[in-house]
């Protein structure tokens, strides 16, 4: 299919999927989500593809899920005029899909290598966590700042880094750098930004030398084993709790929505994040 928000570049046994909305720091909208997961299924059905590199165009991997105003001028975070039951239902559907989409990566039979740089935020951070291998450029900045407008973290963070680390960053939304991500076990390695894609491709080509059944079955050993141990149940538990968080519209959220209505997304982010600066890590630390 023709893709508008991603780039699908097949070269030899390696497919590179690039999130391609650089003007919005690759914010993930419904169209990008649909195209990305369709592309993953297409790649899974292509016997010539042996490994997938997932990366982002422009200044970052992804700023996370797109919370900018919809065509009707309202943000999805705005509950004004919506029945409580309807608002909860909307978020239940979105958070259900979000958890299932992350788990979709584990059912793809080809290994997925996330090659991340710059901003790796929110939902973009989650895709980096859910990938089979993650290589980070040394300019990467990770965070879940959405918790500051009442939103959810992901159980994947605790599963990979332990609950102490998950709480340190999941309860504050604080930024952390690539070295901290490596220390916590969230990425496999950190490389200079100009070596990011060559390094990811070299690893993908190395995997491609291994017999296909071995790669496919050994990915399944890990992913299905983790699901059987309870990781899948933890991700499903994310759904009701995430929808409760998203639907918890209060005075603080209303103030942020008012800022967005008056000054757009930039004003929203300033109102949300201004009081948290300087960040512990990252370009906003100074």
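Sequence proposed for the structure above (286 residues):
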């Amino acid at each position: 299919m023709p893709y508008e928000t991603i780039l699908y570049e097949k070269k030899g046994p390696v497919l590179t999927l690039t999130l391609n909305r650089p003007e919005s720091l690759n914010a993930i909208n419904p169209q990008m989500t649909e195209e990305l997961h369709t592309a993953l299924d297409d790649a899974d059905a292509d016997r010539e593809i042996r490994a997938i590199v997932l990366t982002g165009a422009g200044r970052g991997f992804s700023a996370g899920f797109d919370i900018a105003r919809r065509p009707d001028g309202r943000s999805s975070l705005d509950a004004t005029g919506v029945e409580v039951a309807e608002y909860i239902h909307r978020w239940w559907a979105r958070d259900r899909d979000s958890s299932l989409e992350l788990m979709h990566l584990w059912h793809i039979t080809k290994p997925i290598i996330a090659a991340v740089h710059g901003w790796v935020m929110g939902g973009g951070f989650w895709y980096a966590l859910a990938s089979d291998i993650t290589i980070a450029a040394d300019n990467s900045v990770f965070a879940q700042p959405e918790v500051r407008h009442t939103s959810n973290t992901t159980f994947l963070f605790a599963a990979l880094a332990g609950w102490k680390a998950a709480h340190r960053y999941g309860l504050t939304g604080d930024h952390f750098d690539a070295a901290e991500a490596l220390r916590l076990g969230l990425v496999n390695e950190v490389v200079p930004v100009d070596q990011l894609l060559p390094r990811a491709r070299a690893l993908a080509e190395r995997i491609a030398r291994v017999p296909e059944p071995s790669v496919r079955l050994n990915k399944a050993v890990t992913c299905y084993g983790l699901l059987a141990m309870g990781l899948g149940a933890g991700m499903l538990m994310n759904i009701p709790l995430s929808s409760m968080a998203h639907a918890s519209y209060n005075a603080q959220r209303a103030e942020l929505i008012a800022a967005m209505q008056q000054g757009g997304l930039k004003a929203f982010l300033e109102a949300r994040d201004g009081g948290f600066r300087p960040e512990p890590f990252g370009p906003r630390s100074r």
